[in-house]
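BUG: 3D viewer hangs when loading the predicted structure for this chain

Environment: internal workstation, default settings.
Expected: structure renders.
Actual: progress bar stalls at 90%.

Input used:
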Amino acid sequence: MPKIAHEHVRLDIDAQIVVATGLGGAGRYYPDYEVKFGKENCTVVCWDKTCTNLDSHITKLKANIPKKRPFIGVGHSMGGSIWLELVSRENIPNMTGIVLVGAARTLRTEQGLQFMMKRHWFRLWWLVLMLTFAAPIMIFIWRKKTYDTYREMWRFLRKDGARKIHAQYNQTLKKLGGVTSVKNPDLPLLFVRLNEDTLVDPNDIEFTRKMFNNVREQIIEVNSLHLTEKFDYITVEKIALEAEFLGLVNKKK
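Structure tokens produced before the viewer hung:
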């Protein structure tokens, strides 16, 4: 079933919103963005079979950028890191802002996952099955945080397949993090993040922050290991609070 949007008071905006999905990306749906900002104003970039490495992800992203209309780039998790890669390579004149949702230059992964990703892609199924059998113990320790994590892993494998996730991890996700500067440091940057995110290094957030001259942040107070699309209903409201800063609406005179 498609994800159902929460109720939002619509904000009429003057710019386009281009949303880049996280790891996997197949069949992602962002109804909260469409309800809050208007379906006609939202473009979602899902990573399809043409996205085989970092450069092809960037090519896919660029193909969805409006030619003349002002726009902001929103990146969820890995999608935010890919936006940073793009703006480190090019100055996009009609881009008025960038939003990193649970993202910085790169995403960190724990050693067990790194070990599995070095082996054949089929072993990803083994990893998920082993974690599932351990779920009663882990849920007792981490409670709802762990449940959300398991659900995300199963969704990744079911929709995108272990082969695609394996390739995307090794050919794209592991290639991220080398950005040291951006072409337009005056581009407004908004972090939408958790106080503590297991996949985002606080030091990396600070490094990313220093590449830009205009930076703000909005903290989402939820109990989760990582800021995923599950919390879009909060994320869109946080973005709306910074609409003028990002250039989504014209500044008040």
